[in-house]
Design brief:
With 443 residues, the chain is α+β, with helices and mostly antiparallel strands. Helix content is 55%, strand content 10%. The strands form three sheets. Strands 1, 2, 3, 4 and 6 form a five-stranded antiparallel β-sheet that branches. Strands 5-10-9-7 form a four-stranded mixed β-sheet, with helices on one face. The chain is globular, with a radius of gyration of 24 Å.
């Protein structure tokens, strides 16, 4: 049944929502006129932006597809254009509201195996569009939490951050004993805004689910509710860093920066400063004589150990958090693992089922593939699940992924992200939270 059949009543509701949201923004603007207030700090303004964006996206889907016959080339072409427009609106909203919105937008951009490419390719830019706090704001956070001025704690402190993310930014500094450190400082307003932002997202996603019953993304809100407090606690991040460093200490290729606890709080994390190139920067690796295949194999070893052996898994392995370098002391290639704010703990049953699934995939044991895919929640979609997980075609899975050369198409799908570490992490989250696995054809 086409969505177009229900366009008139739905569109009317959406126009009402949009009108109310616009009136709210206008009245708020009049009230705040000539006042020294950053509009990004006003919850009403942030809600208004999100409400208008949600209404615009919903109306675009309803209005644009109403007169196009479902399943035709014209329909799919129009739907792709709507996907792109909607992704751009969502990206602009994340950039405007910042903080938690950017964090969730970054997560959406990593769901290559679940969302249309128009969304993932558009939202991926959020990794490089994170907001920056001013040096004055950073100084205020440091003084509030550590009780001293920057000049009392450090010989030097970079004015511009080495990198900025959705929740914090990192400055390079030098201690009085000469050691160089990275100081990760939380954006000052993130703590107070995060819970309100999540409530806004929950309300708007519930509204969209009411309009489009097949839209099943409420798990994003539940995940944010559970994980955001952990990610905003930098002491938790420091403990995770030390735990994984001890857990994987037998891997000489892995470097986890040392934590300086006397200069760390819930909003500040001071750690050893380590430089390197991003793990997807082939040119950097070639310039520094780093073997790409060796790095790929070591990443596999590292994550296999986390998933199958320890059940303690780093959940944010985007290229900015996984660096490579040549160790200054040994000249060996190293992987530097950063940002330890979020880990997933896997139970024994999950790890065993997942291990047996991979054994079945390698041996082309079709009964085992079906059995363990179903036990992991894939249901009747186990063939699609096997293809997504391995980034291989169903024909290759049937023959045996260890026996069949990777085709050009399979390689391109892998590069786009399907079958990557993020698929492992999605499965871990789905299984442990008891959610329905959302494997479906993306279009």
């Amino acid at each position: 049944r086409s969505l177009a059949e229900s366009v008139p009543p739905m569109a009317g509701r959406l126009m009402k929502v949009s009108s109310v949201a616009t009136a709210v923004i206008a009245s708020s603007g009049i009230y705040l006129y000539n006042k020294s207030v950053d509009l990004n700090d006003v919850s009403l303004i942030r809600f208004g932006r999100a409400a208008i964006t949600t209404a615009a996206i919903s109306f675009d889907y309803l209005a644009s597809l109403r007169s196009v016959q479902y399943g035709t080339e014209e329909y799919w072409a129009m739907k792709s254009k709507v996907h792109l427009r909607s992704a751009e609106r969502l990206r602009d909203l994340c950039c405007a509201n910042r903080g938690t919105f950017i964090k969730v937008g970054q997560h959406l951009g990593a769901l290559d195996y679940l969302l249309p490419e128009e969304y993932t390719s558009t939202l991926k830019v959020l990794h490089s569009r994170a907001p920056q706090s001013s040096l004055q704001e950073i100084e205020e956070v440091i003084k509030e939490d550590l009780g001293k001025e920057i000049r009392q704690l450090f010989v030097s402190f970079s004015e511009n951050p080495e990198g900025a993310a959705s929740l914090a930014q990192v400055h390079k500094a030098v201690l009085h004993d000469g050691r160089t450190v990275a100081v990760k400082v939380q954006h000052p307003k993130v703590q107070s805004q995060s819970s309100k932002d999540i409530a806004v997202m929950e309300f708007l996603l519930q509204s969209v689910t009411w309009l489009f019953p097949d839209f099943d993304f409420m798990w994003l809100v539940e995940e944010a509710k559970k994980n955001m407090p952990l990610e905003l606690d930098f002491l938790n991040e420091g403990r995770n860093a030390e735990k994984v460093a001890e857990m994987l200490k037998h891997f000489k290729f892995l470097k986890v920066p040392k934590i300086f606890w006397d200069l760390s709080t819930k909003r500040i994390l001071t750690m050893e400063f380590v430089e390197g190139g991003q793990v997807n920067d082939r040119e950097y690796m070639m310039r520094n004589g780093i073997n790409v295949n060796e790095i790929s194999q070591n990443l596999g070893k590292m994550y296999s150990e986390m998933i199958f052996v320890n059940g303690f898994v780093h959940c944010d392995p985007h290229p900015g958090n996984v660096l490579v370098r040549r160790c200054p002391k040994t000249n060996n290639a190293e992987i530097i693992l950063l940002d330890h704010g979020l880990y997933q703990v896997l139970n024994h049953k999950f790890r065993l089922d997942y291990c047996r699934l991979w054994q079945s995939l390698l041996k082309a044991d079709m009964k085992g593939i079906e059995k363990y895919s179903r036990r992991l929640g894939a249901g009747d979609l186990y063939p699609l699940f096997a293809c997504v997980l391995t980034a291989r075609s169903w024909a290759s899975v049937n023959t045996g992924i260890s026996e069949t050369p990777v085709t050009h198409t399979e390689n391109m799908n892998s590069i786009r992200g399907r079958g990557s570490v993020s698929c492992h992490l999605y499965l871990c989250r789905v299984r442990l939270t008891g959610e329905k696995m959302q494997l479906k054809s993306v279009s």
